[in-house]
Amino acid sequence: MDWLQLATERQQELITELQQLISIKSVLNEEEASTATPFGKGPFEAMQWLLTKGEEQGMTTKNIDNMAGHIEMGEGEDLLGILCHVDVVPAGNEANWQYPPFGGIIEDGKLFGRGAIDDKGPTMAAWLAMKLVKDAGVPLTKRVRMIIGTDEETGFRCVDRYFEKEEMPTMGFAPDADFPLINAEKGIADLLLRRDMTSGEQEQIVSFTAGHRLNMVPDLATAVLTQMPATTKAAYEAFLAAQQFEGTATVEGNDLVLTMKGRSAHAMEPFKGQNAGVRLATFLADVVTTPASKAFATFVTTTFAKSCTGEAIALDFNDDMSGDTTLNPGIFSVSATAAEIKVSMRYSVTFPFEEKLTAAQQAVREHGFTLDVIDNSPPHHVSADNELVQALENVYRKYSGDYETPLLSTGGGTYARAMAEKGNAPCVAFGMLFPGEPDVAHRADEFVVVENLIKAAAIYAEAIVKLASTEEKDDAK
């Protein structure tokens, strides 16, 4: 079966449905949280939209507590899971976007929009693959189930509930990362760094804020300062010019308000962004003089400005399987009483967690900070010798002609780890970012290449046949 040709013939169908899904602003909204919309109206609407598509195709659908759902086809005792999510991170500062973040605009062969590559584009490629296999009449010996989550970007509460109530797949893949495939996912720990901001005198930093999500590099930071020398405004403007940064300095009564722009990126690769909070703190470290303000700005600068791998606080670690441990200070919140920095740490598969965290707690204590672990998801690894891994790798190489790119590790977290934590079934992240493509997830002007979207649909169709059909051997030749 020529899945690439079949997918190409239905390109417009895929594009139209992806544009419709991108138009749904499926960002977590806690203010709208209810039994009917646990993570807000947008994520629920996106899930329901896809479930309706499944019903229209005559497939079996189910909604689990409005948190997650599934679309199923095929027959058999075994179950192949395709784990997708339709929630997205916020657009951030929309002034940084050239294209409307929920517009699905196509230009130069790229479709732009929040979720285009994470994870609405890959989800729709997998959805087309299911339809292609169904319409081709391929006899399936396993059930194939697309599992749809709505809280992947903010805690996996959706799939936690799903796997509490539903059957665990026999095997699965998550189209939410890179090709060839990712068989090693770093651990993800959310850390809270905190210090007291009271010092017996009025502190110069009245407030300091940056970031909205731990899994995004902050692209905007704001500081409100008081009792600053009159020359500070000009000094900041000179700093911006010298560093070629974007920002503003305005006087509001007795206060000086500074803003700093950065560039967002995914927390798994913080070095690809420009952290606005760290940039602003770097300037403040040289100009504030009150004790707590100085200590906060200096700590941020020494800990995060020169490196994202944690050397300054004893968290650096590297292994051959998954590379460096990285830190993303994603949310800054400073008030008159306390300074808090929430950090997403993506740590290597063999990272000695307790030993390193104990050393880090001692290191930050010397700067007047405490360090607590808010949440921790252990690393996930599936051997390269596993049958699922080998099958998916072979499918990718057949359609891509790429026989050189090795299996990958990632600092990102996918639903593959959720399956590993809930049961013993093998599951890996499988595409759909191709080697050499820029990873624009969580950035302004996120996009997916339309040609690659079609190719991914073909790969997923063949993967379904190879894993869930008696025709797998003939079709894979």
Strand order of the largest sheet: 13-14-12-11-17-18-10-19
Helix content: 25-40%
Largest sheet: 8 strands, antiparallel
Shape: elongated
Notes on the structure:
This protein has 477 residues and is of the alpha+beta class. It has helices at residues 3-9, 11-22, 41-56, 120-135, 157-165, 232-243, 276-284, 291-305, 353-365, 387-400, 415-422, 450-468, 472-475; strands spanning 60-64, 68-74, 79-85, 106-107, 110-112, 143-149, 171-174, 177-178, 182-185, 187-196, 205-210, 220-226, 247-252, 255-261, 318-319, 323-324, 326-334, 338-347, 370-377, 380-381, 408-410, 427-429, 432-433, 447-449. Strands 13-14-12-11-17-18-10-19 form an eight-stranded antiparallel sheet, with helices on one face. Strands 1-2-6-3-7-22 form a six-stranded mixed sheet, sandwiched between helices. A three-stranded antiparallel sheet has the order 4-5-24. β13 and β14 form a beta hairpin. α2 packs antiparallel against α4. 52% of the residues are buried.
Features:
six-stranded mixed sheet, 477 residues, alpha+beta, 13 helices, disordered C terminus
